[in-house]
């Protein structure tokens, strides 16, 4: 398997015409690369996987009793798995809890388990609501645009990937 990049586009049809010719006794097969299509598909898959992983790591917890602290929530949710953070939202003027929090797990499986077990759970006399955080509600913005580069732009790494 080999990859050839031409300086002039006019050389491509000439190379394609070599299909079937023998080189060292072996017929040559020349075809157009599908690298750009494959690269775009791989990037889309990676982006979708990344977005899904992020979404399933973070939970919204609502109807939280106003006397509960971040440490209290950590103690309740940490048994499902390691946490990256607990963020209890507070009124900036009074410092009092606003009754909701965001909790992020290191592993999406742990977040899913916490969601299933804790949604509707009674905590400090209140039934809490637990749900997945979506990209819009978390303020995330995934920019998948590669910029204004037109056509196929390959660097050394992308050329190596072509060969695999």
> Please, what is the CATH homologous superfamily of the domain at 54-134?
RRM (RNA recognition motif) domain
Topology as a string of helices (H) and strands (E): HEEHEHEEHEEEHH
Largest sheet: 4 strands, antiparallel
Q: What spatial form do the alpha-carbon principal axes imply?
A: rod-shaped
Per DSSP E runs of 2 or more residues, the count of β-strands stands at: 8
**What CATH first level of the domain at 54-134 would be assigned?**
Alpha Beta
The CATH architecture of the domain at 54-134 is 2-Layer Sandwich
Q: Alpha-carbon distance between the termini?
A: 9 Å
User: Counting H and I runs of at least 4 residues, what is the number of helices?
Assistant: 6
Q: Provide the helix percentage.
A: 25-40%
Ranges where pLDDT stays below 50 over 5 or more residues in a row are 136-153
Structural class: alpha+beta
Mean pLDDT: 79
Q: What value does the Rg take, in angstroms?
A: 26 Å
Strand residue content: 15-25%
The strand line-up of the biggest sheet is 4-5-3-8
CATH topology of the domain at 54-134: Alpha-Beta Plaits
Key structural traits:
164 residues; alpha+beta; Alpha-Beta Plaits; four-stranded antiparallel β-sheet; 6 helices; 21% strand; RNA binding; Nucleotide-bd_a/b_plait_sf; RBM39_SF; RRM_dom
